[in-house]
Amino acid sequence: MTTDNQTTLDLKQFLPYSLTNIAMQMSEQFSELYQQQFDLTVPQWRIIANLAQYGERTAKELCDMARMDKSTVSRAVKSLLTRNLITAKENPKDKRASLLSLSVEGNRLHEQIVPLANEWQAGLVSDLDRQELKQFISTLSKLSNHLNKNV
Amino acid sequence: MTTDNQTTLDLKQFLPYSLTNIAMQMSEQFSELYQQQFDLTVPQWRIIANLAQYGERTAKELCDMARMDKSTVSRAVKSLLTRNLITAKENPKDKRASLLSLSVEGNRLHEQIVPLANEWQAGLVSDLDRQELKQFISTLSKLSNHLNKNV
DNA sequence: GTAAGATACTCTCATGTGAGACTAAATTCA
DNA sequence: TGAATTTAGTCTCACATGAGAGTATCTTAC
């Protein structure tokens, strides 16, 4: 555990490396659940999940919340509108930025995915006790705060 | 903390979502360090770091170690060979899979990046005490093991 | 109130990625 | 040994992404 800061780098303990690996693997495995079964891309699912949790938002807000590119969000929103999974209503405060929210159908879809998601995560963390998971998420959030300071 | 498994999903606590966000942000911020200064892409850096830590490997092994696509690795290796940052020698056990390792120049490059990387991570985890970081990495590794079981 | 600048979003274009065909080499099995 | 299968790596193609231009709208400053 004592490392020589000058010449050694242990990738297993280097967070940009190991977090990326694990996050990609998680995302790949979990996304199988909704991609095939519900025909959603990753950005589409992320938008639905955010609208479900936080309610009416603009595209810009979705970009910031889920750290997605504006082009990516624009395309995903377009497709979700076509499929009537979300609705857009004019924003009285800004005509450029319409307010997006889940449609009834979108809500129904979300309600189908949620139990699968919770079940999937329950499996993932089954090796961890409650306290360890809580601690992990708390540390994650500290790291996230730190990263956002430098932005 | 008591969540209704059937209808609610808290994205902040949902790991495929929040880990992906944080990992992407980390990777973006850290990669600025080597992309501009040393003209390396992410896959190129990951290959260099793995060869430095683990020594001589084949392309296939690099794919598995860093969870990269074989095409991505193939292209990155090609470019690193052109720039003489790595060398390839024939593998006596398998003529298809040549053994890749860092060249003197590649090693020199790596030695320049390592202190920057350690410094960067030291900043990142400066809000955490030693024990919390240790615990975090240990949990990460448990999660990683779990994910690999299902593969 | 109007001009200058900023912002939200869409679209186009260049680029990186991953799926899958292909080739060469290794392994398996009869 | 030889035929069939598997594997490592390259290449081609289709696609998703992000950068940047363009448009409409909003904000700021005078």
Automatic annotation (TrEMBL), chains A, B:
Domain called HTH marR-type: residue spans: 12-145
GO molecular function: DNA binding; DNA-binding transcription factor activity
PROSITE patterns: HTH_MARR_2 (PS50995)
Entry keyword Cell cycle: no
Keywords recorded for this protein, A-Z: DNA-binding, Transcription, Transcription regulation
Taxonomy, superkingdom: Bacteria
Entries under Gene3D superfamilies matching the protein: Winged helix-like DNA-binding domain superfamily/Winged helix DNA-binding domain
Entry-linked InterPro entries: HTH_MarR-typ, Metal_resp_HTH_trans_reg, WH-like_DNA-bd_sf, WH_DNA-bd_sf
Statement: the UniProt record of this protein carries the keyword ATP-binding: no
Classification via PANTHER family: HTH-TYPE TRANSCRIPTIONAL REGULATOR PCHR (PTHR35790:SF4)
Protein name from the UniProt record: HTH marR-type domain-containing protein
Species name: Pseudoalteromonas lipolytica
